[in-house]
Amino acid sequence: MRTHISNPYFQISEQNIILRGSVYGHNYIVYCLNQSVNVNTYYKNVGKDLYDCCAYYDRKLCRTVSEFQKMSKERIEAQAYNSWMDGAHS
């Protein structure tokens, strides 16, 4: 895990983001970091090209961009919604 309980936030840069979307009124980003493709639904811009993301609203989608490119939009949106629900239950 990238976080500590006292600080559940981690940062990513704009160049790590490979997709943006919205599902059931919740915005999400899909990003690559540390050989993993993840989705996050609780993030905010904290400076030029820099985002704070909450780990409670984060889910791993797959290991590589090529695996991600084979995923259906429905699967990505389902995982995005589930990441929102994970965070809401934390």
What topology does this entry show?
Elements: E1 9-13, E2 17-23, E3 26-32, E4 37-40, E5 43-47, E6 50-54, E7 58-62, H1 65-69, H2 73-88
Antiparallel strand pairs: 1-6, 2-3, 3-4, 4-7, 5-6
For this entry, give a set of tags.
four-stranded antiparallel β-sheet, 2 helices, 23% helix, 90 residues, alpha+beta, single chain, globular
Describe this structure in words.
The structure is a single chain. The protein has 90 residues and is an alpha+beta fold. The chain has helices at residues 65-69, 73-88; strands at 9-13, 17-23, 26-32, 37-40, 43-47, 50-54, 58-62. The protein has one domain. It contains 2 helices and 7 strands. It has a 4-stranded antiparallel sheet.
Q: What does the average pLDDT come to?
A: 92
What is the helix fraction of residues, given as a range?
Answer: 10-25%
For the termini, the CA-CA separation is: 15 Å
Largest sheet: 4 strands, antiparallel
User: How many helices does DSSP assign?
Assistant: 2
* β-strand number: 7
**Spatial order of strands in the largest sheet:** 2-3-4-7
The whole-angstrom Rg is: 12 Å
Count of distinct structural domains: 1
Low-confidence segments, given as residue ranges, are none
Beta content? 35-45%
> Which H/E pattern describes the elements?
EEEEEEEHH
Explain briefly what this protein structure is.
The chain has 90 residues and is of the alpha+beta class.
